[in-house]
């Protein structure tokens, strides 16, 4: 039995009438105790008996690879093999690729490409040998810098933006740049692979197992049915673990060659190079507005890059398409094929940098016109999706802006920049709107209800997002069980295929699959109670219909009842525009002498349909705001102009926000149910918090000291250059 | 080389390659995999353990340098039930993915002792304590432990609650 649902229209609210009271609460993570005691098992933690250790070796340059001393390295103490196999992958697969990424080790397309694996009896021996392996490349210049090559693709054009700009009393035409950025999850990419006959098992750090299984099988040239992936705990992802990566394929090859388990963990510096980065962008923003700030034209053209052979193109403008109403439009990307490390999804691909720069431009326009930045947004909220003319499933931007402004105390703000000074410090405030497309994928889940409780199984992952918590709550709510009577099992491809974690779609997609599985069980329980499912109340392990109450254990009569749910997106995602919305506010201090910026407080108000777990959703938003601080002030990969290699490829030189960089964060959720988003009426929350967050900080810098930084990040040297003008 | 030391109050001996870091000795030789390797460079703090009561990055220290030392890892912070600090991390959601968490916990434990002993920090107004666990002191002293999930509000609230200085503000 399976309860299938293709989401073609609006769903009816059901959960509200359920009695357990678990959904939406701030339930502690069921996996919490395992994580705080060190008992949760991550990819590199469980080493089987007889395991060998592999270390990837990077290409030092471009072109054909020549190995100088492989025999000498093979003869080093403890070394088992130097493997250079054509099936090894150039870089991590793109999210949902479902097939092998570009493969091969004969030549390097970018500096840092993994082109060999050294395997030894110990990690120390493998590392030593990998460092001793001499690789030469025959080189030759390849394009690595933006502007070096012809571009692919053109933005979409509607109306006549040039004419609108010429006629408008207020116009803005500015160019911003954002650097390459990295996901940098705390857990480096790792895999332990072992074979039993022709069956392969790999414990790895992955976000989307059903796709990753096919990617690994395709890379190796074997049947996906012979591959089992395990990822019960994943130390962060942020897009970097969407696709199968170099270490997993190499570990599988080595384990087969040697006939024993092999563990390969990428060194942190390898993670920076072999895992997809967020593309650098150059963005030209054009805004045309009348005297009231009403937009007649909007232009956002972005230049982004990727390696040859990669289908991914940073979708910088995907939210701009529906963010604000304007008749005349030029919106889209141009792609440059550069031999920098591959680009791919990093938390909120598109909006993270696209909405940020759009919102910086909106701030510039508000400043030019002399109207309040919040008011400028309110005046340009479209009635329908400006692209397709379809309605929005819900539109919460106005409420987010108004509520956020009230929470932050925005009304106290001085209208002009450079109005407040405390000693050496300029103090200012800024804001930004937040937009993120809402996506549903396909997922299946299984629930087994026994007298002991419910067991939920899906190959979905919890990469820190709170999947264990929310699936516990969803099953518990629907089946009338307290959290401790629900066990959620994730991260194993022997379970039904979930959606995977990415694109903020995991909670709503896989959550709805669990919900459907529970509905199937509810229907059977109602049948046994001889009442309609709608009349059935389940709470604390009892079933009630009218004046009858029966313990679930008695209804089950010692047996287990199974439910299977299957959900997929249907017409509900084309009939209406689905998005999440929010508003960011920030207060900064800018040092007049050094150009240093300190964020003093931040506030985010968000609408994402039903919030499934108030605690884990809040933590996701804390993450988004903090990434916004990093994007605004410190984060950026530096590519060597000669060969494109990443110069600052470690955590000391790539500066993510640390504890002392993060001020008190206020996160508020608006009450919302989006009936178009599936039975749970919940939308993705994992990425919304970063969309535009950096703009609030950058706009606050301008309000504080009058300096408009258009090349991110706003490091002290850039701010100081503005202060000295 | 032979090595004898105490790990989580238990005497241990190892015959170990001198190149093995303290972190890898704990993880791969003693199977105490709570301590995590986030960078192997002393840059992230995920490997933080307590050595004779002081917090260190165990990836930056060779195992054989610890003859006779007393090591405490995240597994040694609790005795059966989670410690108050560990329970507070769960309550305040002081983690998401959980990978930096063992380091945060060991680091916080060491940090609270340092401040109690009057060690100054960059955030201190002077070099002659005592020091209060203000938010500035806490954040400064915990900034060697990166959390890419960015659970700093929860981490700070958990530490402050455990230290009896109230919720973070």
Provide a descriptive summary of the structure in words.
The complex is a heterodimer of chains A (725) and B (169). Chain A folds into three domains: 3-40 and 441-569, Aldehyde Oxidoreductase, domain 4 (2-Layer Sandwich); 52-141 and 183-274, Aldehyde Oxidoreductase, domain 4 (2-Layer Sandwich); 347-438 and 577-724, Aldehyde oxidase/xanthine dehydrogenase, molybdopterin binding domain (Aldehyde Oxidoreductase, domain 4, 2-Layer Sandwich). Chain A contains 18 helices and 29 strands. Chain A is 26% helix and 25% strand. Chain A is of the alpha+beta class and 725 residues long. The N and C termini of chain A lie far apart (71 Å). The model of chain A has no long low-confidence stretch (mean pLDDT 97). Chain A is globular and about 75 Å long. Chain B is α+β, with helices and mostly antiparallel strands. Chain B has two domains: 2-76, Ubiquitin-like (UB roll); 84-163, Orthogonal Bundle (DNA polymerase, domain 1), CATH 1.10.150.120. Chain B has five helices and five strands; from the N terminus they run ββαβββαααα. In chain B, a hairpin with a 2-residue loop joins strand 3 and strand 4. In chain B, helix 2 (84-91) packs antiparallel against helix 5. The longest helix of chain B is centred in the middle third of the chain and has 16 residues, at 101-116. The radius of gyration of chain B is 16 Å and the shape is globular. At the A-B interface, helix 1, helix 3 and helix 16 of A face helix 1, helix 2, helix 3, helix 4 and helix 5 of B.
Give the helix/strand layout.
The complex is a heterodimer of chains A (725) and B (169).
Chain A: E1 3-7, H1 32-36, E2 52-58, E3 63-67, H2 70-74, E4 79-83, E5 107-108, E6 114-120, H3 123-132, E7 135-137, E8 151-152, E9 156-158, H4 161-167, E10 170-178, E11 190-196, E12 199-204, H5 209-220, E13 227-230, H6 246-258, E14 262-265, H7 268-274, E15 281-289, E16 295-306, H8 320-323, E17 328-337, H9 351-369, H10 373-378, H11 397-408, E18 421-422, E19 425-437, E20 443-450, E21 453-457, H12 467-479, E22 486-489, H13 506-529, E23 537-539, E24 542-545, E25 548-551, H14 552-556, E26 561-569, H15 572-575, E27 579-591, E28 597-607, H16 614-633, E29 665-669, H17 693-705, H18 716-724
Parallel strand pairs in A: 1-26, 2-14, 12-13, 16-17, 21-22, 28-29
Antiparallel strand pairs in A: 2-6, 3-5, 3-7, 4-6, 8-17, 9-17, 10-15, 11-12, 11-14, 15-16, 18-19, 19-27, 20-21, 20-26, 23-24, 24-25, 27-28
Chain B: E1 2-7, E2 10-15, H1 22-29, E3 48-51, E4 54-57, E5 70-72, H2 84-91, H3 101-116, H4 135-141, H5 152-163
Parallel strand pairs in B: 1-5
Antiparallel strand pairs in B: 1-2, 3-4, 3-5
Helix pairs in contact in B: 2-5
């Amino acid at each position: 039995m399976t309860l299938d649902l293709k989401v073609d229209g609006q769903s009816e609210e059901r959960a509200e009438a359920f009695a357990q009271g678990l959904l939406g609460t701030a339930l502690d993570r069921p996996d919490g105790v395992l994580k705080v005691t060190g008992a949760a098992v991550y990819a590199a933690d469980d080493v089987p008996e007889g395991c060998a250790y592999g270390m990837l070796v990077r290409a030092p340059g471009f072109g054909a690879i020549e190995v100088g001393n492989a025999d000498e390295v093979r003869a080093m103490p403890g070394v088992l093999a130097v493997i250079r196999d054509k099936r090894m992958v150039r870089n991590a697969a793109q999210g949902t690729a479902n097939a092998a990424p570009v493969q091969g080790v004969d030549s390097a397309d970018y500096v840092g490409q993994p082109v060999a694996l050294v395997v030894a009896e110990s990690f120390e021996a493998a590392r030593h040998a990998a460092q001793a392996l001499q690789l030469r490349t025959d080189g030759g210049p390849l394009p690595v810098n933006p502007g070096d090559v012809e571009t692919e693709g053109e933005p979409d054009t509607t109306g006549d933006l040039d004419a609108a700009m010429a006629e408008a009393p207020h116009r803005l035409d500015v160019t911003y740049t954002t650097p390459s950025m990295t996901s940098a999850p705390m857990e480096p990419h790792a895999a332990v692979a072992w074979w039993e006959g022709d069956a392969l098992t790999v414990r790895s750090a992955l976000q989307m197992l059903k796709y990753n299984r096919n990617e690994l099988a395709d890379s190796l040239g074997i049947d996906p049915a012979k591959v089992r992936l395990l990822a019960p705990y994943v130390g962060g992802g942020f897009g970097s673990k969407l696709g199968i990566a170099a270490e997993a394929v190499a570990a599988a090859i080595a384990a087969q060659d040697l006939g024993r388990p092999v563990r390969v963990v990428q060194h942190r510096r390898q993670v920076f190079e072999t895992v997809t980065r967020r593309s650098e962008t150059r963005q030209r923003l054009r805004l045309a507005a009348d005297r009231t700030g009403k937009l007649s034209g909007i232009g956002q053209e972005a230049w982004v890059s990727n390696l040859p052979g990669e289908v991914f193109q940073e979708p910088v403008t995907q939210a701009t398409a529906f963010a604000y109403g304007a008749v005349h439009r030029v919106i889209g990307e141009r792609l440059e094929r550069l031999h920098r490390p591959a680009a791919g999804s990093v938390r909120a691909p598109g909006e993270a940098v696209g909405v940020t720069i759009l919102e910086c431009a909106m701030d510039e326009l508000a400043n030019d016109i002399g109207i309040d930045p919040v008011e400028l947004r309110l005046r340009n909220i479209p009635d329908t999706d400006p692209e397709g003319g379809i309605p929005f499933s819900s539109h919460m931007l106005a409420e987010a802006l108004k509520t956020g402004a009230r929470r932050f105390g925005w009304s106290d703000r001085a209208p002009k920049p450079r109005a407040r000074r405390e000693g050496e410090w300029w103090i200012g405030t800024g804001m930004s709107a937040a937009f993120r497309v809402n996506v549903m994928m396909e997922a299946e889940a299984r629930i087994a209800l026994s007298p002991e409780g419910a067991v939920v199984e899906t190959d979905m992952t919890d990469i820190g997002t709170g999947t264990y918590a929310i699936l516990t709550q969803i099953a518990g709510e629907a089946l009338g069980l307290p959290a401790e009577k629900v066990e959620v099992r994730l991260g194993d491809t022997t379970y039904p295929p979930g959606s995977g974690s990415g694109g903020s779609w995991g909670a709503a997609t896989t959550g709805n699959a669990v919900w459907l599985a529970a509905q199937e069980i509810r229907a059977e329980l109602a049948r046994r109670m001889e009442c309609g499912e709608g009349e059935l109340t389940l709470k604390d392990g009892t079933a009630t219909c009218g004046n009858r109450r029966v313990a679930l254990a008695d209804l089950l009569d010692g047996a287990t009842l199974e439910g299977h749910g299957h959900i997929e997106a249907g017409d509900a995602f084309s009939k209406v525009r689905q998005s999440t919305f929010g508003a960011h506010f920030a207060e900064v201090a800018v040092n007049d002498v050094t150009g240093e910026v300190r964020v003093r407080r931040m506030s985010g108000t968000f609408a994402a349909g039903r919030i499934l777990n108030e605690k884990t959703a809040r933590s996701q938003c804390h993450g988004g705001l903090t990434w916004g601080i990093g994007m605004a002030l410190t984060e950026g990969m530096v590519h060597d102009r000669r060969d494109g290699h990443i110069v600052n490829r470690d955590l000391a030189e790539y500066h993510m926000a640390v504890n002392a960089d993060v001020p008190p964060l206020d996160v508020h959720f608006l009450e919302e149910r989006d009936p178009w988003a599936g039975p749970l009426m919940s939308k993705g929350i994992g990425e919304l918090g970063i969309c535009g967050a950096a703009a609030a900080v950058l706009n606050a810098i301008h309000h504080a000291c009058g300096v408009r930084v258009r090349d991110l990040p706003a490091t002290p040297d850039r701010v100081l250059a503005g202060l000295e003008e | 080389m032979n090595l004898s030391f105490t790990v989580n109050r238990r005497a241990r001996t190892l015959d170990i390659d001198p190149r093995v870091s303290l972190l890898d000795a704990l993880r791969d030789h003693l199977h105490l995999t709570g301590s995590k390797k986030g960078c192997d460079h002393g840059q992230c703090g995920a490997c933080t353990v307590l050595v004779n009561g002081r917090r260190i990055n165990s990836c930056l220290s060779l195992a054989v340098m610890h003859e006779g030392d007393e090591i405490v890892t995240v597994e040694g912070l609790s005795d059966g039930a989670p410690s108050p600090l560990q329970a507070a991390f769960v309550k305040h959601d002081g983690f998401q993915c959980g990978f930096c968490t063992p380091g945060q916990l060991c680091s916080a434990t060491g940090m609270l002792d340092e401040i109690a002993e009057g060690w100054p920090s960059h955030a201190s107004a002077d070099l002659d304590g005592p020091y209060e666990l203000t938010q500035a002191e806490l954040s400064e002293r915990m900034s060697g432990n990166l959390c890419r999930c960015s659970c700093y509000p929860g981490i700070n609230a958990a530490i402050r609650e455990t230290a009896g200085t109230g919720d973070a503000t």
